[in-house]
Every structure is written in C-alpha cells, then in structure tokens.
Amino acid sequence: MTDAAYDLIVVGAGAAGMTAASVGAAEGLRVLLLEKTPQVGGTTAWSGGMVWVPANRLTAEAGQPDTLDAARRYLGQTVPGGFDTPRQTAFLDHADEAIAYLAEHTPVQLTPVRRYPDYYPDLPGATDGGRVLEPRPFDATQLGRDFKLLRPPLPEFTLFGGMMVSRPDLAHFRRVGRSVRSTLRVARLVADYAWQRLRAPRGTTLYLGNALAGRLLLALIQKGVEIRTGVEITGLTFDRDRVSGIELADGRRVAARRGVILSTGGFSHDPGLRARFLPASAGALSATAPAGAGDGSRLGMEAGGQMGPTELNGAFWVPASRFQRPDGTQGVFPHTVTDRAKPGLIAVDRTGRRFVNEAVSYHEFVLAMLRNDNAGAGPAYLLCDRHFLWYYGLGRVKPFRMSLRQDIASGYLLTAPTLRGLAERIGVNPGVLTATVEEYNLGATDGLDPMFGRGANSYQRHLGDAENKPNPCVAPIVQSPFYAVAVFPADLGTATGLLTDACARVLGADGVPVAGLYACGNDMSSVMNGAYPGPGITLGPALTFGYLAARHAAGSIASEG
Hints:
- The structure is a single chain.
- By secondary structure, the protein is of the alpha+beta class.
- It has 2 domains: 1-151 and 209-309 and 495-561, 3-Layer(bba) Sandwich (FAD/NAD(P)-binding domain); 316-491, Succinate dehydrogenase/fumarate reductase flavoprotein, catalytic domain (Flavocytochrome C3, Chain A, domain 1).
- Helices cover 30% and strands 19% of the residues.
- The chain has 16 helices and 21 strands.
- Strands 1, 2, 8, 9, 10, 11, 20 and 21 form an 8-stranded mixed β-sheet that branches. Strands 13, 14, 15, 16, 17 and 18 form a 6-stranded antiparallel β-sheet that branches.
- A hairpin with a 4-residue loop joins strand 10 and strand 11.
- The model has no long low-confidence stretch (mean pLDDT 95).
C-alpha cells in the first residue's frame, strides 16, 4: 500500500528537523514531518536553546560586530583538523543567512546574548560575547491545543511544577529578600505563573530551548506542515539510485518527490552504535531525549552513507548526576553551568584528589575524566559545604532548599558533619580528601587556585559569581556539614554522524551524494569534529543545515563544494 506523495519528508522533529520542515514549506513544498515519540522538540526542548552564529547581523546591529575571519582563526585552533572543508565553510557562510530567513518567514525570533564568552577565550579570534543568540521568550498560548505536542522542559529546570525562568531572572530569584526590585520581580513572575496554571498544565511563558522548540512548532503549524507523531520508520524506498520515500512500520510507503531529510537526533541511546563509535570508558549515560536511538544513522548507512568521526571526538560531553524522580522515572542532571564554576566547590576522583579545573567547559571536564584512570567512567564527586549548597545549589538540589531529606535519603546527596566522614561516605581515603580540601583552602582564602588556576579567563569568571571577591570562581570550603554528588560522563549529543556535503546531502563511500537523501542535526557528522568551541555549537549548525537541506531540496540553492 502506498500513502499519498509529498515533496519532502523530514524524519525527526528536533530543532534541525523542524527547521528543515518549516523552511521546505516556506519554499512552497508539500512537507510531511514524522516523529516517533508523542511530542516534538527533541533534546532542544530540554536545552539552553543557545545558537552559535559568528558574525551575525543581530549582534552587529546591537553594536558588537564580529568577523568571519576571526571566527575561522578561532575554529582553526579549536576544531581537530582545522576548519576549512566545504561544509565547514558553508556553515560560516550561511549561518547568519539561515537565522535571517527564519526571522523573515517564520516565528523563530532570536536575540543576541551580549556577554557570553567562547569556551577558549584566550585563543586568537575568540570573543567574550556576540556570537551567541537565544530565542526570545515565547507565549505558548499561541499554539492552542497543539501546546500538548511540545515536549516540556526537564522538571529539574523548572520551579513550582512547571514554571520556566529566564537567565536574567535567575539573579532576581537569588536576591529575593535582599533586594526590593528583585523581590517585586519574582512576585510578579510567580503571580503570572499562577494565572497561567489556571488555563494550562504548565507555565505558558517559555524560555531557552523550550521557547525555540515552541516557535518552531508554531512555524510548522502556520506553514501547513503535516505532523505525524508516534510513527516509526523501518526503511527508505528507492527509485533506481535515488531515495524516493520512506517505509513505515505498518508496511505503508510514503513517496517524497524532492527527498528525505534525516534528523532523528543521533545515536546516544543505541548501545551497538555507542560501542562502535564512542570510547568504552565513557559508559552509556546520556543527557539527551530518549528518541535519539540511531534510526537516522542506520537508515543512512543502509542507503550507502558513511559515518565519522569516532572515539573521544564522537560525542559532546557533560558531567551528569543520576537520580530517581518521585514518579519512578530515572533522571539525568547535566552539570553544565549552574554549579561547577561557582566559588566553594571542587571535584575529586576516586582517590580523593582534584583532577581538573572545575570551571572549564562541561566538554573539557569530561575529557579530563576520561584521561584520568581514577575518574574514567566515574564516579567523580562534586564537593561543597553548607554555604555553597544553600546559595548555589548542587545538581538537582536547587538553592535555598529548606529540606534536603528526600535527596539525602535517596542517596543522591551525600553528607557528613566532617570531611573525614564525607570521605567515608564516598569511599575515598579520609586523609587524602582532608589534605585535598586543606590544600585548596590555603589558596582559596585569598581567591587563588595554584593547582589549576581556576577563574583565570573570562569564560570561567562569567560562570562564577561576580559578587564573590576577589575571584568569582574560588572560595574556601569550611562550613559544616559537607556535601557531595557523584557525577559520570554523559553525552549531550553524538558528534559522529553521516558524512555530508555542503548542502547536507549524505555522501556514499565514493564521496558522491546519495541522491534524494539529506542529514542534519546530530544525524549529520558534526562540522566541529567533536570539539565544543562555544555555547550553541550544536544548534547553530542544526538550524543552518536544516535550512540548507530544505532549500536545496526545493531547488532554491545550487549544490556547493
């Protein structure tokens, strides 16, 4: 049985897939978007939603210009193998064009983050801000009944059972009771949320990645894209040597006159592909949405597509802690920016010794774990004192938590009145851990970290606490009781993917594109070759190559490179 024909079929409804589908529809194509889970948004809906776009016009208009030459210098030093292939060049040449197209043709509206340093800010070509864009807040009531189609954010990143908070407003929550302005701001936000909950199952003012996913969903609706959720693809169909459509699990075939775009989220949750392309020492933990199970990779390889790169560069890494939610589901908390760089925390390995500058990027933190035989696949431990836990929180334990009983009883939060007692709880030598903290405290009292130089660059200081003097990333650990949380290597998405050309066409073994087949998002081999140069370096290429794939399929742009 053959289903109705479409011009373009997009498989997977994360940021890349929704971008491709909305752009294809904007170009006049009849588009079908298939998603195997009940909701759209993928890992994007859980993410910070940042989009890395060098030399973008939005930041230039805000008086903070950048250049592509500077971006090339920076990427040439941070990306393995340099940054001069045709598809890498295509990203730089078309990223700003893609976000301008989305702004003109869809509800996807981004705004510059004026201050957010690249992750290696001391390298030539790096900037302290301007390359990062974030979605504008989104009123989800515009989705109407389709709000239920949008994957909600992780509950650990919301308040009061469903309230999202913007990055600037986090500072106001931290100052409640100490600042009249902040207290009034928080009171207004909470009142707005209470009103929203009278009409919706969660807050309808969306921020971060959920706002981006919500805006993309609205674009799909406005452009008339047909969305089918809960649909599993079992294969591609061919007309001679060209991909001509897809086959569904129920045996139906759906034709795609212009092509099929794979954007299923990579293979983070597929044990076989992880064993093949990622280091065994990284384990199997992932902070991504569960739909990324290698569907696109397998479909692409069955069509003759090739995969790369592998090993340490095969994924984007983050230290993550594990826990069980009250409803029995397993939770994974990615320790990206909320705790590790704040003053008064250290990370120790299984010997009780520090092994890394805790304020480096999450990707670099895990690379240090994987290079350290005593951290390896984990656990390592993030350790702090009572003051730190109250003021900054630790992992899923939010700041100003009045009761820690549940987190302690579950074993997530380990605690003891003394460092020696805490060492026994985490299974390390008490003398070694005590000496580690004492050595750290010697310098920390004066804001120094002689061992690792924590707080030495603008990125680390940006994630610290500017109110902590003289070093926003360093303070002593002295106030009993003491606390620790175990962290493990986890991925934020796979970097290994299908090799493509500059228009996102999947390449065969001979380097020739597989006609009618495209890949973007984490199904596409990362243009960063597994490096993590700055915030939003997954979403920036996802939007760009989703845009390029759709426009190439529509015949709106010619093949490049």
